[in-house]
Write a structure and sequence with these properties.
CATH superfamily of the largest domain: Jelly Rolls
Structural class: alpha+beta
Strand order of the largest sheet: 1-8-3-6
GO molecular function: DNA binding; DNA-binding transcription factor activity
Number of strands: 12
Distance between the termini: 60 Å
Strand content: 15-25%
Radius of gyration: 20 Å
Protein name: Crp/Fnr family transcriptional regulator
Number of helices: 9
Number of domains: 2
Organism: Aquifex aeolicus
InterPro entries: cNMP-bd_dom, cNMP-bd_dom_sf, Env_Response_Regulators, HTH_CRP, RmlC-like_jellyroll, WH-like_DNA-bd_sf, WH_DNA-bd_sf
CATH class of the largest domain: Mainly Beta
Largest sheet: 4 strands, antiparallel
Keywords: DNA-binding, Transcription, Transcription regulation
CATH topology of the largest domain: Jelly Rolls
Helix content: 40-55%
């Protein structure tokens, strides 16, 4: 029994090949090219609460989430913590430094919300991958850049938008990425606390609780430990207008 279980256990190479064969970044590669491309990637595992990298790191490289959940955190000048993005399987995050960065550029810290696995590509390996498979490298760079720009848009919206609008936007985005439909409801099963919602919307925990409690009484959402239900999506969408 033990030998059979061991024979079925996937190796890191198996995991890399299986995962990359199913995502758009590598869709143009044949099996031999895919196997070659994965040689530039390292499979890394993180436990819940582990940090993957910090915003001060000069060369974190490129990460692709294989399984689990990661949050990207930004510390503001006044000491507040903001979750600028949740990373889901298949998402690209991190960045590549081409020489020393110019200007006052700041990024984010990455922390595992759940036990997670990632594919990691260092700066040097990314350059080698780009030389051999430029189309793949371009897709990764575009994804990473778009996601990095999204973090700045979120920071801008936190500075200007109303709290209700920001919370509604976050719930709708979570519903889009991680929600499952059941009858007329959308169920978001993520280990998010009120503190997380507050940090994703740049508000206090007390304010996040007050807004979501009011929506619960109005029948717009339902919240229980471990999940959030969106009962009336249209009402949340009205807050974005």
């Amino acid at each position: 029994m033990g030998k059979r279980a061991a024979s079925k256990r996937k190796t890191p190479e198996d995991i890399k090949l299986d995962f990359t064969s199913r995502i758009h970044l590598f869709e143009d590669l044949n099996p031999e090219e895919l196997r070659e491309a994965t040689r530039y990637m390292t499979l890394k595992s993180y436990e819940r609460g582990d940090y993957l990298f910090f915003e001060e790191d000069a060369e974190p490289g490129i990460f692709i989430l294989v399984e689990g959940l990661v949050k990207l955190i930004k510390e503001t000048q006044d000491g507040k913590t903001i979750i600028v993005r949740l990373v889901f399987p298949g998402d690209v995050f991190g960045w590549i430094e081409w020489g020393r960065a110019q200007g006052n550029i700041t990024y984010y810290t990455a922390m595992a919300v759940l036990d997670s696995k990632v594919l990691y590509i260092s700066n040097r390996d990314f350059i080698n991958l780009a030389i051999k498979y430029p189309a793949v490298a371009i897709r990764m760079t575009c994804d990473a850049t778009a996601n990095l720009l999204q973090t700045y848009e979120i920071l801008k919206s936190i500075a200007s938008g109303r709290v209700e609008e920001r919370i509604a936007k976050v719930l709708l985005e979570l519903a889009e990425k991680a929600g499952t439909r059941k009858n007329d409801k959308i169920i978001i099963r993520l280990p998010l606390t009120r503190q997380d919602i507050a940090e994703m919307t740049g508000t206090t925990v007390e304010t996040a609780i007050r807004v979501m409690s009011r929506w619960k009484k109005q029948g717009i959402i339902n919240t229980e430990r471990g999940y959030i239900e969106i009962l009336n999506r249209r009402e949340l969408e009205k807050l974005l207008v």
